[in-house]
Design goal:
Bound molecules: fe (iii) ion
CATH architecture: Up-down Bundle
Number of strands: 2
CATH topology: Ferritin
Largest sheet: 2 strands, antiparallel
CATH superfamily: Ferritin, core subunit, four-helix bundle
Oligomer: single chain
Structural class: mainly alpha
């Protein structure tokens, strides 16, 4: 009979998230750089800092359980990141690129929310309140990030709709050499 138990499952998914957080640490700088909307870029950069902290907090949980931190290949996060990368390539230079970035980021957050939610539940069932507290703290930050991304999705859409209404890209005023004329750019 299979002797695996809930503690094994918790350790397995802990190793899965440890891998996922480390992959995200590598991927997020590129994603932030690709974002056009300043608020979106800032939100991704903030979450990059949180992601680094999450990886360290998970190392603490491993130690709390008397185990050495170990990463287990997470196929789900690799798939979400790969698809996100492909979409970003397809929409590069398009006005919908920021929406692509937000969608990919939300898919990541939802994966994290699901797994941290399970980890929190299992830690409570295994009577480990200190591990549960760590999972809950991380879970809260993932949820906040998801909410922030939903707000940004609306902002980004409103701003691009406003740009469309203004005709082409935002009318950019450029000072000419002699400061006497204004050049308007409406090209797209
Ligand atoms: Fe995280
Ligand atoms: Fe996250």
């Amino acid at each position: 009979m299979n002797t695996k138990n809930l503690r094994d499952l918790l350790l397995d998914q802990l190793a899965d998230m440890y891998y996922a957080e480390k992959q995200l640490l590598k991927a997020l700088p590129k994603v932030a750089k690709a974002a056009n909307h300043e608020g979106l870029r800032a939100a991704i950069e903030d979450h990059l800092d949180e992601t680094g902290a999450h990886a360290q907090m998970l190392e603490g949980v491993f130690r709390n359980l008397g185990e050495t931190p170990k990463a287990k290949k997470c196929h789900a996060i690799l798939g979400i990141l790969k698809e996100g990368e492909e979409m970003m390539d397809e929409y590069k230079g398009s006005p919908a690129l920021d929406a692509v970035i937000i969608a990919a980021a939300q898919k990541v957050e939802h994966y994290e929310i699901t797994t941290y939610g399970c980890l929190l539940e299992w830690a409570m069932q295994l009577d480990n309140p200190s591990a549960a507290a760590v999972f809950e703290a991380i879970l809260d930050q993932e949820k906040e990030t998801d909410t922030e991304l939903t707000k940004l999705a609306r902002e980004v859409m409103h701003e691009s709709a406003a740009e469309d209404a203004a005709g082409g890209t935002m009318a950019v005023e450029e000072e000419s050499e002699d400061h006497s004329t204004l050049a308007l750019s409406t090209s797209r």
